[in-house]
Amino acid sequence: MLDPTDDPSPFYLRKASMDDFQFAEALTRNNMGGYYRRHHLVWRSDLFLASWRESENFILEVDGERIGVLRITEEGDSLHIRDVQIAEGHRRRGAGTYLLNTSHRWARARGLSELQLRVFVDNPAARLYQRMGYRLAGPRLAQLGSIRHMSRRV
């Protein structure tokens, strides 16, 4: 895997440990809470923990402060981006773009052909994903009408 710190940037991405789990869950639950309420979904900590255990998890830092989470899984010929979460006050400063670019580089280095993610239909991050080349991928994993499945070629 490529070292994401090879690129000069204010961001430092490191592999997460179980010590980071509480931060990651709280950030994700806080960021996604409004979407869950609007779309009548219930947050389940047990499902987040199960997903955490199955994923490669990373913590994004700036000046030693944890500001974000990236969670990925590799399935077949695809790298699935499970979470890109950025803390309030650190958004719109390039952190999400940094995590998506890093994911793309990793997928290419692993010889994968595609990246995939899911996003709530009313999440403004979908515009970032589209700018970065992600397109609607159809209904194959979007079981809920409130979630869109997107992919891009590597």
UniProtKB/TrEMBL annotation:
Enzyme class (EC, first level): transferase
Assigned EC number: 2.3.1.-
Domain of life assignment: Bacteria
Keywords annotated in UniProt: Acyltransferase, Transferase
Keyword Transferase tagged: yes
Name of the protein this chain belongs to: GNAT family N-acetyltransferase
Organism: Paraburkholderia phymatum
